[in-house]
Structures
1.
Amino acid sequence: MYPMFDSDEDFFRAARDIVASGGGCVAQEEPFYVCDLRELAARHARWRDLMPRVEPFYAVKCNDDKLLLRTLAALGTGFDCASRGEIDLVTNLGVAPDRIIYANTLKIASHVRYAASVGVNIVTFDSKDELIKIKQNMPNAQVVLRIRCDATVAQLYFGKRFGCDPTTEAPALLKLAVALGLDVIGVSFHVGSDMQEPDAYARAIAHCRDIPAKDEASEPQTMYCINDGVWGSFNAPSTENPQPCSIWGPTCSPLDCIVPATSLPPLQVGSWLLFKDMGAYTLTNSTDFNGFKKARVKTFVDRCLW
Ligand SMILES: *Cc1c(COP(=O)(O)O)cnc(C)c1O
């Protein structure tokens, strides 16, 4: 934790100090993140203000920095975890298991058993096979149906992968859940990441309310989910801003191109580039590929919040 600071001026001075001081007598040579806890507290306060009856469950995958999670825990949020690793991370910070929802509808059986063993009891589902898996591995689960309702415009649509159709699939799944003796406590949805159609929330909530009691014929496509995927390998930010120079990462991979084409003032060797607002997923999707360590997080907070 860097000493507290009160203004953006202090913030940049602190960043420059880190660059200047580095590790002891050697100048800083590794990249670092700057995390401003003031922003986190302000957004949490805003949520509380505008939606006092809605309990936030923070999706750990967006940014799993420990100090950030600990701050959210202290502020009283719940947590949305997708794996044993995320459940471990959050419970190890002292978060009570009843403040966690295991919200990946595609679960590894041993992770479900682990969740049950540490007292996590709320899970989402969107298919028959997963419901049966839940019954077998967490018999007293409280389950939340996940329906599909993508926004018309989003950066990432979840509907292809997660959520059942609210009219053709949901009724049969709810019936099965009841037949299995599982306690259905709600309906959930994800309208898409970075989506640009606020009305999608209203549509999704209406779907939640209106799930019909009558089944309609449906033939869902089988999806086989295995235990590794694209997020086990490489993730690179992209840009749409093609111009005269290019920016590359440190590895020997030809894919390690951060900005294929842009324009910058001439830089000296040793110059630093600051990328503002790196955003959700950048930290959690980073890897140690090629022996280059992940960027560290340097966290800031002001005196008042501290
Ligand atoms: C990824 C995810 C989130 C967070 O989504 P954002 O669009 O990044 O806010 C929330 N809930 C679930 C179930 C998710 O998988």
2.
Amino acid sequence: MQPKSNIVHLPVYQPGKPIEDVKRELGLTEVTKLASNENPFGCSELAKQAIMNEIGNTSVYPDGAAVALTDTLASQLGVGKDQLIFGAGSDEVILMIARAFLVKGDETIMADETFAQYKHNAEIENAAIIEVPLKDGKHDLPAMLAKVTDRSKIVWICNPNNPTGTIVTKEELDVFMAQVPASVLVVLDEAYCEYIDDPSYPDGVDYVKAYPNVIALRTFSKIYGLASLRIGYGIGRPDIIRFVNQVREPFNTTRYAQAAARAALGDHAFVQSCRDRNAEGLRYLQEQFDRLGLSHFPAYGNFVMFDAQRPSAIVFEELLKKGIITRARWTYYPTHIRITVGSREQNEKFIQALEQVLQEVAVQA
Ligand SMILES: *Cc1c(COP(=O)(O)O)cnc(C)c1O
């Protein structure tokens, strides 16, 4: 038996180490996971209540079209109801976009390095992957534009970029959009947009309104704190959304996810409080990296990538022994670590552990 030849070499996704595994393996009682950009403040109480209210309907299929959630979100965003598509996380929207648009021979352009799911799903569809190196940790949009050919189908822009955390500005995106052919779909992955109030950060909804070839992706996994429910969405022109909908599984988002997402959209106080506490945490971490003489990329989401100036695999292991799970081993950044902004207490615990590790591990020349 042979699978599709193009998937044979694909790795199985390696998630951030689960807390329970780390506790067991290292005999630790307290472990802090700052590896997967999860919300350290949990989720809205309204979302929890909405899940409880759905428990009695567990035996009934969800509304495949997510009508109630679509209504709420469309009016909040100021877009048409036919401009939204929901997925089991925005990961599934990425999968559906690849499934709907890419065939063998198509080219798809992305940064290197960036969120792994663009490449992963494009490889499954047998598309040719064109990776364009980051420049100072940022998307190099002019270089990406230069790679566009008549075989190009999708350009993926991760904004802010995971793992580096840098953003593409309005000005940069405007120049890019003015030149990219309308036949090329531009995916703006905005998983962290709700954290950002920098005026130079572009709002994907504006670009969906201005251009026929844009789809913006957002998620309930990050600021809304609903990662385990698996729900995210895409915003685009109705014709693009229709194509993506055509490849969607009938019941791809659950009742709990839809109900909790809808409730979470209404809890503006929770979102604001997460945004404020995250901004405070970002400030704290960046100040501490400066104090320790460690450079870092400018951060906009709920994570920071910094240069530990030592092999990141070793720093990762040493932090792990002190009960802190981080993300390391980036292809082009062998001494960098990506750290999620935690609660104040978690951030302080991390900095304490990092200071000790920096003393224990020799600087890489
Ligand atoms: C977390 C993340 C996502 C998706 O998360 P889901 O849980 O699948 O919604 C998408 N893109 C980026 C860049 C992310 O960091």
